[in-house]
Design a protein that fits this description.
By secondary structure, this protein is mostly beta strands. The chain has one helix at residues 27-35; strands at 39-46, 59-66, 72-79, 81-85, 91-100, 107-109, 115-118, 123-126, 136-141, 147-154, 157-164, 171-179, 183-188, 195-200, 212-218, 230-235, 243-244, 250-255, 258-263, 268-273, 280-285, 291-296, 301-305, 311-315, 319-328. The protein starts with 26 loop residues before the first helix and ends with a strand.
Length: 329
């Protein structure tokens, strides 16, 4: 069972300044974003067969859909990795993965090629990278891009660290006490004061989802007032991707075939039932607060209206992950 108390530790390493002159790692994605007309879009990581056979181990597809009629606008080939938008939709962050580790069969984040695209300025910032060999499976930038939270392997288990862009020294803020692939899926609150994360009690090598999950919240400085309280706990019948509303007052968690809405203090305020025979694995709140996109265990993606609970299918049988809503001013 994850621990209830935790003393933060600091990993002492000599930081290496980031190379601010690094070229953009995603020229095709940058161009695709620059070419978008003004508007709001939903982005999806898909498993469509647009990837050449000789690149399927290292490439995947980012699909961009209109938020008005949910028709596909663009489809871009990108490096395998973690991609997500900010809650307000004005930034799109990417953490491409490097080659698979031959000893354990997983690929880890290549921080030297991580980036943040700003739709307001149409520019790409290279994310400050960790200059030593930390094996991280998940990462998320703070709203002001000054910090990064990473979920990294410490042997078989996972820990969460916050890295400042100034000194790049990882500070451990949570001890997951769980297999490293079952710890992370982090989401910063829009004010940058809270970090929501997911822990599952699956063990190394288990392919099933038996056991329980917990959503917890912590602070970038690991202060006592928000250190590891539980927000939700239950059987592993859902997924780990949670979504903050753009104003930071609410967040949404998958719960079986329903979506639970919590306030920023961790009290559940509403349960939205989808009446579907599919388990929900991830949610993403639209920037205007009127809709929730969600992905199911059958790789289907839907959008539900928070006004009348109308569910609209967007993508069927090919979704891999929701990478969130984006806003092109």
């Amino acid at each position: 069972t994850p621990s209830e108390t935790f003393n933060p530790t600091i990993i002492q390493n000599s930081p290496t300044p980031m190379d601010s002159s690094s070229p953009s790692p995603t020229p095709s994605l940058n161009q695709s974003f620059a070419d978008l007309p003004s508007g709001t879009y939903l982005t999806i990581i898909s498993s469509k067969q647009d990837v050449p056979l000789n690149e399927m181990a290292t490439k995947m597809v980012l699909d961009i859909y209109s938020s008005t009629d949910f028709q596909e606008v663009k489809s871009v080939l990108i490096q395998v990795g973690n991609y997500y938008s900010s809650p307000d939709g004005l930034r799109f962050n990417g953490f491409p993965h490097g080659p698979k580790d031959a000893t354990i069969g997983f690929s880890f984040i290549d921080f030297k090629n991580s980036f943040s695209y700003d739709f307001r300025t149409q520019t790409t910032q290279i994310v400050p990278y960790i200059p030593y060999e930390m094996k991280c499976v998940d990462a998320a930038l703070s709203p002001d891009n000054s910090k990064m939270i990473v979920s990294c392997a410490q042997g078989e288990y996972g820990n969460l660290y916050v890295v400042s862009s100034l000194d790049q020294t990882p500070i451990q803020i949570a001890d997951c006490q769980a297999f490293f692939m079952a710890c992370g899926w982090t989401a910063w609150s829009p004010d940058g004061q809270r970090i929501l994360y997911f822990i599952a009690n699956v063990k190394s090598g288990h392919s099933d989802r038996e056991g329980f999950y917990e959503f917890k919240i912590t602070c970038p400085e690991a202060t006592s007032q928000c250190l590891n309280p539980k927000f939700a706990k239950g059987p592993l019948d859902g997924g780990p991707d949670a979504g903050w509303s753009a104003d930071g007052s609410l967040f949404a968690l998958p719960n079986g075939n329903a979506i639970d809405i919590y306030n920023s203090q961790g009290a559940m305020v509403k349960r939205i039932s989808t009446d579907m025979d599919e388990l929900i694995y991830g949610v993403a709140w639209s920037p205007d607060g009127t809709k929730l996109a969600f992905i199911t265990g059958h790789d289907n993606i839907y959008v539900i209206s928070l006004h009348d609970s109308t569910v609209e299918p967007v993508y069927v049988n090919s979704g891999v992950a929701l990478s969130g809503w984006i806003v092109k001013p």
